[in-house]
Amino acid sequence: MKNILFDFISKYVSLSEEEKNVLLSLDLFHTVKKGTILLEEGQKSNDSYFVLKGCIRTYYIIDGDEKTTAFYTELDAYTPHCVINKAPSEYFISCVEDGIILIADENMSADVNSKFPKFEIMCRKLSEELLAKKQTDFDEFKTSSPEQRYLNLIQKRPDLVQRVPQHQLASYLGIKPQSLSRLRARIIEKKN
Amino acid sequence: MKNILFDFISKYVSLSEEEKNVLLSLDLFHTVKKGTILLEEGQKSNDSYFVLKGCIRTYYIIDGDEKTTAFYTELDAYTPHCVINKAPSEYFISCVEDGIILIADENMSADVNSKFPKFEIMCRKLSEELLAKKQTDFDEFKTSSPEQRYLNLIQKRPDLVQRVPQHQLASYLGIKPQSLSRLRARIIEKKN
DNA sequence: AAGATTTGTTCACTTAAGTTAAGAAATACT
DNA sequence: AGTATTTCTTAACTTAAGTGAACAAATCTT
């Protein structure tokens, strides 16, 4: 797990042994069980996540039912909105599978960032990159139909379709579970 | 214009006079005419934008017609994806109105960031904030209907509905111009 | 293993968006 | 000012998503 983390970091900055040891002294790694709720609606939090293994999802409860809006899997980093704006969370975060998650408290990060400017640089680069990518994903979503979005998902994140329940995928695609079922049947129909 | 910029920056870090002077020495401010194209599809660029006055939009050309996916107005900062991934742009950026735009070349930013860690911190905070907000906007988009999205837009960015052509708004809302017309008629109908 | 719950599919019906086309209104152009 | 172009609306028709319900399949639970 350490290696996975350091390999990831090395894409942004190169760490000395000392810096690596500082990170390892922080008790960042957590094993989580499927179904564990990491954050609840209404709750405040200072935790950012980095998925080493497994899958976590964010979901809202609107009119009584779940709307899943995002999945984070291996090597995905994620800071919830409530950490940034210091307000109660508007959504839940839970674990789709058993996994290993790195959890970094904001005070921790601030500490490390002020001691090692390298981390500050890494965080900036990573955020800039994720922001650009998020915007592109959003663009793609806006400019395509549910069917195109599903086909696109099969291409870009084929694992998700396997590891995540259909009804969660449906809201991730901005539609109802029944529509996803129908849409899939339609695609198979077209192939023949 | 200088004051607008420094007021904005002061929300993230406090600058010394020296640091302010460094910024002002960089020839960042540009007046732009409505219709000016800042970036074309296929083109490479290192420029980030900060809108002091006016409105810029990003749009794709898909099957021959424009799909507008984002608007940036007063105090919005924006770095195109092609700057981050060093690849040719997949979309255009153009000016919706006459305006004043701050344009920062990446070399410039790198220079300033390495001389003044404060800027690095500001960029990290700003990116983190924008990323969190973008995700929330995306969530909202996914979990609502075109009509809800339009009503939401009237609440949150009422200026946009005034200053931007309907057909650009339509693709921003993920629908066709005719559907936006119909949807607006439907809303007015409901009021009576 | 039996029963309960969650998950996924199908169907009939409703609602709204996509499509194509025509025309009105506003804006830009010379 | 008059013409051309762009922008916006309306309408009829098509297509696909939303809704509610029933059922099948898979998965917990005990």
Automatic annotation (TrEMBL), chains A, B:
Any stretches that span the bilayer, and where are they?
none
**Domain Cyclic nucleotide-binding, first and last residues per copy:** 31-104
- Coiled-coil annotated spans: none
Question: Which first-to-last residue range defines the signal peptide?
Answer: none
Q: Which Pfam families match?
A: cNMP_binding
Q: By its UniProt entry, which InterPro entries does this protein fall under?
A: cNMP-bd_dom (IPR000595), cNMP-bd_dom_sf (IPR018490), RmlC-like_jellyroll (IPR014710)
UniProt name for this protein: Crp/Fnr family transcriptional regulator
The lineage, from the top, is:
Bacteria, Pseudomonadati, Bacteroidota, Flavobacteriia, Flavobacteriales
